[in-house]
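Researcher: If convenient, please comment on what follows.
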Amino acid sequence: MFPLKITEEYNYLKEEVSAIIHETAFRIETERLKSKWLVGKSIIDFHPDRKYGDTVIKRLAKDLNVGERDLYYCVKFVDKFPNLLDQHNEIEVETLDVDGKTPSWTKIKQDLLVEKKCEHLETKVKGIKVEICTSCGKCIKRTEV
């Protein structure tokens, strides 16, 4: 390998190539999110009464060779962000902006769509057992002991 003299022109080339790579990655992820949203919207539109249940999703998953769970996440994505697309059918990126960047489909599923199980902390106060959720802090169950 021959030594390369780092010049101003080379630094410009490096910045230009880096910008192309990052812009392309952004567009790919944005299109992936758009496709997931459109899939969910199509399923919902097929049965606006939300009675598609397991039957439609299981059949779609089998016929299209995709995961059932992913199809359910697509529906939940539309539920969570019903107005994600603008009038030009493009993603309103600001809607999903997390720390200045558009999150990946995996991050959206993990952070926004997966129902987290509540973990309850039990304590006894004056003859009453109290359970407080350590995850959400909202689930409270009181029983006399």
